[in-house]
Amino acid sequence: MTQVTSKIYGEITSRLAASRKKENIAELIGGTLLSAFVLTGLLLLALLLEEALYLGTVPRTIIFFLLLLLGTSLILWLVARPALRLFGILSNESNLSTAHKVGLKYPHVRDRLENILQLFHERDRTQLYSVELIDASFEDVRKEMALLDFNSIVDYSRSRRLSKFLGVAVGVGILVFILLPGSAYRLLNYNQSFAEPVPFVFVVEPGDKEVVKGQTIPIIVRINGQPQQHVFLSSKPAGQIEYDQKKLVQRTDGTFRHEFTSLKSTTSYFVSSGSIRSDEFTLSVIDKPIVKMLQLRVTFPSYTKLSAKQLDNNIGDVTALKGTRVAFLIEANKDLAEAKLVFDDNSELFLNVNGAKASGDFELRKEGAYHIFLKDHDGIINTEPIEYTLKIIPDAFPSARIELPGADMDIAGNEQLNMLFRITDDYGFTRLRLAQRLVQSRYEKPAEEFSFMNIPLVDRTRAEALVAHLWSLKSLSLVPEDVVRYYIEVFDNDNISGPKSARSEVYTLRLPSLDEVFSDLDTGHDVSIEKMKEALENAREAKRDLDELHQDIRKNQKKMDWQEQKRTETLLRKYEAVQQKIDEVNKMVERMVNEMEKHQFLSRETLEKYTELQRLMEQMNSPEFAEAMKKMQQALQQMNPEAMKKALQQFNFSEETFRRGIERTINLLKRIQIEQKVDEVLKRAEELMKQQNELQKKTSQMNPRDADKLAKLAEEQKQLKDQLDQLQEELAELQKKMEEFPSEMPLSEIKEAKRNLEQSQLAELMEQISEQLQQQQVRQALQNQKQAAGKLGRFMQQLQQMQRAMRENQQRQIVNEMRKALQDLLELSKRQEDLRNESESLEQNSQGFRENAQEQMEVMRDLGKIIDRLSHLSQKTFGITPEMGKSIGDAMREMNNAMQSLGGRNGRAAGQQQSFAMGSLNEAAQQVQNAMNAMMQGGGQGIGMAGLMQRLQGLTGMQQGINQGTQNLGGMSPQQAAELARLAGEQGMVRKSLEQLAKEASNSGELSKLLGDLNRIAQDMREVQTDLAQENVNPETLRKQERILSRLLDSQRSMRERDYEKRRSAESGRDITRSTAADLDLTTQEGKNRLRQDMLKAMEEGYAKDYEELIKKYFEALEQHEKQN
Amino acid sequence: MRIVAFILLALTGLSELSRAQHTQVSSAFRIARLKYSGGGDWYNDPSAEVNLLNFVGKNTKIEVDARYEYVEIASENFYSYPLVFITGHGNISFNEVEVNRLRTYLQNGGFLYADDDYGMDNAFRREMKKVFPRQELVELPFSHGIYHCQFDFPKGPPKIHQHDEKPARGFGLFHNKRLVVYYTYEANPSDGWADPQVHNDPERKRLDALKFGTNIVVWALTH
Prior knowledge:
The structure holds two protein chains of two kinds. By secondary structure, chain A is of the alpha+beta class. Chain A contains 25 helices and 28 strands. Chain A has eight domains: 3-188, no CATH class; 200-286, Immunoglobulins (Immunoglobulin-like), CATH 2.60.40.10; 291-393, Immunoglobulins (Immunoglobulin-like); 401-512, Immunoglobulin-like (Sandwich); 513-672, Four Helix Bundle (Hemerythrin (Met), subunit A), CATH 1.20.120; 813-936, Up-down Bundle (Four Helix Bundle (Hemerythrin (Met), subunit A)); 945-1056; 1090-1124. In chain A, strands 2, 4, 5, 7, 8 and 9 form a six-stranded mixed sheet that branches. In chain A, helix 9 (562-598) runs antiparallel to helix 10 (604-620), helix 9 (562-598) packs antiparallel against helix 11 (623-638) and helix 21 packs antiparallel against helix 22 (1014-1029). Chain B has a single domain, classed as 3-Layer(aba) Sandwich (Rossmann fold). A seven-stranded mixed sheet of chain B has the order 2-1-3-4-7-6-5. The interface between A and B is large, with 39 and 52 residues.
């Protein structure tokens, strides 16, 4: 082998090696592309498969690892292998193979290149070919091969193709990754399990949220994906195990909505539909601060003397006086960062905070409202705080009222005026004063300003006080016809806004002249008598109608007709009118008596007679008469002639008594008027003398040179002269009235007194004194004044003598007539006794019955005469009592019965009835005897009202003491037992006194004046006495004692015949008629009555009381007007 | 397995049935007496509502559950009563929570009837001012429907008890023009609902009271 051959061989193999390297590179590129392409394709396939099938963990794991295995294999085979070859790690193909490829590439080369290579390798072994030939062959091949490109055996077309496919595959892969990230994620996380994708998902708002306690949270659910019809909300407050489920209703916008209202605790919730549910969300509730406990303590201004007051828990409204200190203690539900009171005028009061508590205080100065502001450490504040009100109770104005006298009044002289004031205020007073001003006077100039006089107050702290004050009018030096105006003024103790004052009504006091008073009394008497006369005339007229009616009804046996009914009605009305007139007269007499009492015009005797007269008038409207009238009315309604007849009969009897009562009243009234007139004349004379003496005193103290004052005295003396003239006229008037009853009245005495007065020329003397005073002849005037006083004194004595004579004369006459009546009654009683004895011994067929009946008739006739006489006497005196009338009436009735028994030849019955008649006669005689005795002892009649009253008052006082003593006893010590025994003794004594009093009153006919049942009271007293004696004081004992006292007081009231008990009847709700409220106007505010609101607003402006009243009235009128429209 | 399933099914069915029955009972009209704090005797005359409900049952088509029940504003079942009745002689006090709940109740269909049994007036007015601060109790005119809806009361509320001898009056509070609180003063119908021996009211008065109570129930349920 030559060198050339080796060289050529080397060249050829180098060239082949280069080609093989290129081929390896091409294979590496192609393998890489192919691997990438295949792997991308497989990955896409797997993603699509996962997307489509939503594979489970196992298949996903298999796929994942398959992909991994395949990818690794491909890379090893297609990438790693050529790379290793390239780098010579793996053996490359042989030169022969490469040469073969070249031969294949170049057909004309065929196997020549292979042959050369083989020849070279086998050069040493073969002997067939020469070296030169070999060299030449090599040379040929070299030349031929030099023209050839061995690299052409490397094929890049596959790589180019693959790169195109790979580009597409990578593009698709990226797209799939973007579109199906879930699948890729799941594939990559092959070992995790994933839920299968749902057809829809819930979007829940607000999801998780922190909310403040009590807040309302709306939950809005939207569905992404397949629309759903049935969506449920499940919720569970903290602490609850199970969910509460609620179906949600779809709204028009496709959403579902639910509200958690006023959330109180943390709540978990989720929504679901079918098997699909949302995530679970939580509404975490945070407590907002609230007031758990509110305590207010109000401390009132010191002047109120009220103790501080703790309001009820959670009461935040404050209604208190101005100046009240209000302390707050607030307890919140959690620790606080800040607490304050926010007032409606935007002012604030910060409270001291300590943990969950806050406190503070302020002084109430104005009205308004406030709320409590709280803030916790998270900055959460309380919401909707309660608006509390602050109201100021205005310190009320005090009020002052004059309870007594409580009206304009005439006073009787320079007396002391009993006054009673009622003052009220909410918290007490500082002072009270009486203001007075002379507004009218005959002698002095009226005062322009009020003068004040402080009235001491015992207790200034009371809310209401009755202050009694005795106003001495002496200091006012009033003279007749002076008028004083007065009021009281009270000041309260408000030291916050300053004391407020209030005045009472203004009243006047007038000192009338005697003439005026007497003139009024005269008129009163005249009018009273006239009215009584009218009443009598009306009663007589009614009586005529009654008789006619009675007769007609008796005639008409069948039936009452309409006309009769009408007549009866008219008749009853007439009687009612008569009764009304009597009532009017009674009231008039009462007024006169009051007036006379006030002026002390009346003697005790005359006053008692007036009282008796009033009682008589009240008795005229007796229960019997009222009952008779009632029965008439009933019969009238029933239209029953029989009942009517009976009613008429009964009425007839009562009417007779009624009419006689009127006549008696007139006669008594006339007599009393004379007695009053005598009292009056005496009073005038007395007053005249008093004034004359005072004038004399003034004259004696007068400076003889003081002409003005002397002129004034002269004027006063002139006044006295006028009064004397008036007295003389009155005397003449009295004489005239006395002449109506010549046999009873002291006509001669009055005439003599009149004559003496005229002869004394007192009037002329007074005239002279006046002139002397005018001419400043004081000494002479004084002498004459003394003389005048003496003459007046003598005149007074004569008048008093006349009064005595009148009374004695009256008494003598009445006693004589009573004595006569008494004798007659006793005689009749004796005759009745004889008759009884005879009747009882009569045989049935005896002739004696007739004689006996005749005798009985005579007794009855004589009794009738006595009745007439007593009736006549009753016109003059009150000594003839209804009890006497009753006893005599009983006697007459029994006599009548006896007559009938005698007619029926029933001697035994007749005797019994005659015996009863005799008893009644004796009783009547006893009553007349008592009345007569009382009269002779100097009392007007019987034991006398005054005496009875006095004794009853005494007993009442003692009973009060016993009651008090019993109530004060506590346990039962020996001392208290002894006290009880003492009280029992006292109670027994009072009982005995009362029984005695009842007996005396009964005997004297006074019992009817006592409405209370004295015997019943005595019975109660006996029981109480037993309880006390047995040391058995129980609540019932105390109640009995109260009852006794109450009845004793009632008895006194009934004696006075002025007060009547008003019983309050307890019932369940009585309907009270009232008008409707105004129509509601709900359009503006919720039913608010605007007018009322306006009014309240106006009232808040703080007007004075008078203006407030006016404002109220104005709004009421407006309201009325609105209603009418 | 089948047996277990059957038992489970049966149990579920029974429970549902029981719930259904309970619901049916609860549909009858009930009145709750409002228990309040403050010291007033919220509990007096427990026979009142029972008698009224019986009367309402007999004289109207309203199905009633004539029981005496009481409720506190703070309790869970407060909102389940269509009509709540409050009475007494003394003080009433609502705390902030109670005020809010009562307001919610009244603004959402509830009805409160208050009857002053004497001495409740000031406290009740004050507490209602907390609930509706901007409103005043207004007197209802005689023409208002509550006086005519079932029985005719041409002169307003009947005077059942005497008290201060003032005229009987009826006041109301409105929300969105709906009467939500009705309050009788100086009338005291609820005394007339009580058993006859309690107040010895005449039968005529009791009948008036029950008729009037019926009007309140009918009005509350229909408005």
